[in-house]
Every structure is written in structure tokens, then in C-alpha cells.
Amino acid sequence: MKFGYFDNEKKEYVITRPDTPREWTNYLGSLEYGAIITNNAQGYSFVKSGASGRILRGRFNVPPASAPGRYIYLRDMESGDYWSASWLPVKKDLSKCEYVCRHGILYTIISSKYDGIETETTYYVPLNSLYEVWAVKVRNNSGRKRKISLFSFAEFTNEPNENQDLVNMQYTLFISRTYYKDNLIIQTINENYSEIGKIIPQEEGISGRRFNRFFGVIGAEVVSYDGDRDVFIGSYRDYSNPIAVEKGHCSNSLNYGKNSCAGTQVVLELEAGEEKEVIYVLGDGAEATARKIMEKYKEEGRVERELYELKKYWHSKIEKFKVKTPDEFFDSMVGVWNAYQCFITFFWSRAASMIYVGHRDGYGYRDTVQDIQGIIHLDPDSAKDRLRLMLAGQTSKGVALPLVFFDYEIKPNQGLSLENPYYVKRTGYTEYRCDDHLWLYITVRQYVKETGDLGFLDEVIPYSDYGEDTVYEHLRKGILFSLSKLGKHGLTYGLDADWNDCLRLGEEGETVFASFQLYLALKIFAEFAERKGKKEDVEWAEKEAKKLYENIQKYAWEEDRFVRGFIGDEVIGSKNNKEASFWLEPQVWSVLSGAATEEQAKIVLDNVERILNTDYGAMLMYPPVKTWGFPVFRMILFNPGMKENAGIFCHPQGWLIRAETMIGNGDRAYRYYQEVNPANMNDKAEIREAEPYVHCQFVEGKDSPFPGRAHVHWLTGTASSMMVAALEGILGIQPDYDGLRIDPCVPSHWKKFYVERVFRGKKLRIEVENPSGVQKGVKSIIINGKEIRGNFVPITEMKDENEIKVIMG
Ligand code: GLC
Q: Full-prediction pTM beyond 0.85?
């Protein structure tokens, strides 16, 4: 089944049927004001933090029809019939109405047609603003004069701390109230605070300060209002049939210590063919702020201009990399949606979606260091800033804090580590993971290769606890930490987890996956040392890498696979195990790290295909665990075929694709890409259920009764790993220290493709031709008419604008 299509020209996904298998969502806003919106106008918003800045209430994991939203109801004042500008909440019979939702980059437009009345509602957060706009155009196409009321509805939280708002009702139900004056509803929270607040000791989690929120209406006079949610909705009713709308007017109620809402009514008289616009603004601030903002929207064309600016800003970022291949769905993802998703994961880490309820108040270390990889080609400056922040989250022992708070500041001697009770209490973490800091090496290298900014290695950055060092020394410390945590096979202890959150090996167990990562970290460090002319460091890193290599080969190789690890002497991922005998991560990382021999690489990747692959990607391991490995294997708690228990974890699919391209299997790499490309499921939405335009954390594997069903949308490492796989792997556009390597690895049926990209401020137009249908190999490169040997274009050959022609063969 199909519910929509990609409009690549506009960079929009257009949902033509509103009854999608799940809420198909989009993001609005920025790091300052975040908002989530579904194709039916549901969702929530917050200032700065989803945990402690919540403005609009979200209700999670409820049947979609019972969630609050940014609702606009329409009521025909003659017939009394009413409907909504999004299909929910009123849910008119779909044979009598039409709803189309266009999700764009940080805006959503929902249009409706019912009974001769058309609406178009544009939702967005203006650039650099702390409020959201809902602009509704209402058009009378019925051929006769109509009198239509528009009712708005927004449900405010009573307390910005979303957890307190939802669970501590004996307190939070009594702290908020609403006011109304001249088209403006104001909600206050703890309004006496400014008088006496400072001397009141606050309970943990409670903001205990004064907050104000506003909801202003521009373009028509508000004729009635409700500030009390329960008065607007009415007893024993719900969002689909509020009493105010049914009666045809609000009750002019004000909330006093219950639940606040912004219910307003305006009446539009529309001649045949006439269109009117009403604009709603909602955000954080008191009356003076609100009035100033409302004034701005009296200006003709303001919404169009702001939307134009918003699109210009984001489109120009995303357009730094353009692609045209024979596969339109590949282009939709790499050129638009995957890029957009990478920015969203970069912004919100794993904090706020319809699945992540916004409580996580920081950047998960490993997730964020990987998320950065997805945007380096589009926004290297932001990538650098975030890298700095993450490096400042590394302790002076070289290991990293599991979580870096959103409000963390880079400054020396903050004393943050797992030895600090405040940190432990705020995060709940008591142990370090073995992999967190190991992601830094690839990301720092990718940043340096993109920008040529080797000087970054000399930048001094504080540690999270005490002291400071250059980036280069941070990286050395990370390696030293890992080398101090090797087990009896000379491999990395698993500690609280390696990338796989469910594998808790502690200091009894070793992980082969993270050992490959450490091997690669040593190689990268040696590369940096070489560039800096530090011979001793090169020797040291290479010697350590060699030792590790020998241990891996000696203990972790088992004829046709690399094992996953050890618990004491027991082997995880051995062919002799009856469950979980073959794992994806060590196979792909043996190739990515360069530690597998050519022969091993071929064997293990063939076996990945044979043992793990399905129509929807490769499972994380197989067979699922049902009886074995507990308590080290937390995945045993998941139903077989889900998540880490033999689900198709999507994040590693990017690694797999990249690994295949490294050994020249373009056909297979592309097939894997197709298997996990959500756009390829556009016509099978009833199977995938999740949005066809975003990657998910996992898809159910073959042991589930629902193979192919996808879960945990938007905020996942899949975004960046698939991006890197597509750019560097399939398209083969690989920035290097002194230029750009172009080494595509494509399916043999791709006869050509085109990439446009900015590289160190220079524009590159790259045309790749593949006349003899090879999967890999470059015969010649011509840059600006000059032929170059090999597949490497030195930066010295690049002008401001460049035409590059690549012939594969
Ligand atoms: C989730 C976590 C990520 C972890 C992965 C595998 O995606 O966010 O940190 O690596 O699961 O367990």
C-alpha cells in the first residue's frame, strides 16, 4: 500500500492519504525551539530541552486518535457540521474529504478539502525564533457565500519539566492559569514566583520558576475563547468532538489550576471563491513579547517570506551535495531525506521523537560522535563545534562520559566523571563503555580530510574532569585507556557495552568488535603522527596495532567467521554455539578496520549474505538467543527477531555496505542499500509501517511474525552510517588529506551518475561514466580538461569551479 510520494524538486514528501499505518512525522524548529509534528498535526514542542522546556503536551504510545495536537476545527455556522483542517482529530469519512500533507525540511503543510471549503495550514518555526507559526488559509470553493468558524486548540503543559507535568499531578495541576485579552491567550506557571520564589526550596525536577506562554491570533477577531481544556472539550468527550465546536462557541473560560489550553474561535464570512488567512503564533513569553510578535504578522506576506527564508537556509545547506543516479529513490535519500535526517540526529541525538519522549537531556557519546559523520560534508563548521564538545566530554583517563549534557559547556576542571556523584545521579550511569571514545578517531579523521584542517589536532581542549590537552593528545589518551583494558586474549574488555548496548561483558569478557575499532584507532593515530612528523608515535602505534592484530588473528578467527568475543574462556559467536553463532559487527569491522586479510574479508562477507541477509537487510546476529548467555546478553529480553536479538539493526547496514564497497562488490553493496532504503518500501507501507522517508533503528528480522516492520524512527545512527556508505562507499567520493579520491563502487548496471559537491569551498561537478559496466575501478579522470593518473584529484588541481569527468573501467 502506498500513502504518498517523494517530490524531490521541492524536497518534500507528500502524504496523499492521512490514514497512514502510524503517525508519519516531521520536525520543526531548531536547537532553540524544537517541535515535532505528524501528518495529522499532532506532536509537541519545547524550548531548548524536551525534558525541561516542554510547552505543548505530547501523549505517547496512545492510539493516534487520542493524542493532542495543533488542531484547527472548522464549523459551518449554518449547518452546524464540523471537521478539522487535518484529518485528525475529527476524522471525517475519507470518501467525503481530501487531506494532503507535505512534509518539507523543517516545515509541514497540511491541506484539506471538505464540503466546498479548502484549507492550507503551514506549520513552521521562523529562523532564529522561539515560537511556532500555524498559518491557515481558508478558501470557499463551494460557489455560495459561507460562514465558517475556525476553532484553534493547543494543549499546554502545566510544568515545563515534562515528567513532572505527566506524573506529579498532585502538584503540577495547581500551578498554572490562563488569561485572555484582545486575541491573545496567556498561560502563566508559578506566577507569584518573582515575588517569593527564591526562598522556596524546590523539589527535584520541578522548575519552580515563573513561565509564560502565549497563543496569539492574527487576521480575524477572536469572538470566544477557552483557556480551560476541560471546558473546551467538555465532559466525557475527546479531541474529536469538543463541546465548544459542537455548540458553535467557546465559553470564555479561564483555567485556574487545572489544565490550560488555547481554544479560540474566529468567524470568517467568505464569498464564493474568496480566501482568508488566519495566523496563530504560539511560544514562550509574556504579553509584551507576544504582542510584538503578533504585530509582525499583520504585515502582508510575512509568512511567505519567512518560509522562503527557512527553505533557502536549509536547502542551501543540503544542496552542498547533489546527486543524480539511475535510482531515484537513492537520490531522494542521499540528496534530501537522509541528509535532513542526519541534521535531525545531529540536533536531537536520541532525545525527542514520537518514541523518544524527550527525557534524555544530552548527547549520547557514541551516538553523537557518529552522528557528526553524517553532516561533515554539508556543514563542517558545525561538525567541528560538536567534535570539540565531545572531546571535552572525554575524561583525562581517555575514556568518555556516556552522556554529555545538552547544557554542557567547554571549560576546564569541571570535575565530571563517573567518580562524581552528581554526574552519576543526573545520568544514572555508573560504568564506562569500551567503545565511546573509540568513535572519535574515524570522525576526527573524516573532519580533517573534509576540511584539510590538520591544525585541529593541535587545538587545546579541556577534559571533562581535570586538565586539558591538544586533540592529538586526547586521541593518544583514548588509546592508552583502551590498552589498559585488555583481557587475557589481549583483546578489549567489553566494560558496560561496546556499540551493542545489550552486550555487557564487563571486565570478564572481551569484545572482538571493539578490538577491531581499537586496531583502526591505532592506525589512524599513526597516520596523524606521520603527518605531524612524530616518528616515535608512529612506531609505538604501529607496534601496538601489530600486537592487537596478532591476538585477533590468533584468538578471534574461526575458519569462516570472526567470533564476537569471549566471556572468560567461553566464546561468543562461535560456530559451535547453538544460539547467536554468527554476528554481523565483527565481520564488517574486520573489513572496515583493515584487519581482515583479503581472503578473510571475502569469506566473512559471503557468510554475512548467506547467514544473515533477508529481504530487508542483514540481521545483527543469528540464531536469536532464547536460552543462552544471560545475563551478559541483555538481548535475550527482546522477542526474537527484534532489536539486538536477531533483528535487522539498521545502523550496521551502512557499515556492511561500506565494507562491501571496500572489497569491490558494487552489486551486493547496492542490493543491501536497496534492502534498507525506506523509500523502496514506499509502496509497501503496510509492511514497514514507519515513514518511507526516514531510516529507523531496526526492522524486524525473519524470526518475527512481522518481518520488515520498522521501529524507532528518525533518531538513529542509521542516518549517518547510511550516508557515509552512500557517499564514500557507493558513490566513492572520498575526501583525503591532500585532495579528493574518487573511487566509486556501483552496481554494474549503473552506466553513469552525477555528483555536485562543495569541497573546501570549491565547487565540483563530477560526471562518472561506467561504459563497460564494472563494479569498481577508475580508468581515467579528467579535471577541467586535464587528465590525471589514478583516482586521486589533488587539491592543487582544483579551481573555484571544476568539471570532473571520471571513466570507470
Ligand atoms: C541504540 C543506541 C546506540 C547503540 C545501538 C545498539 O541505537 O542508541 O547507542 O549503539 O542501540 O545497541
A: yes
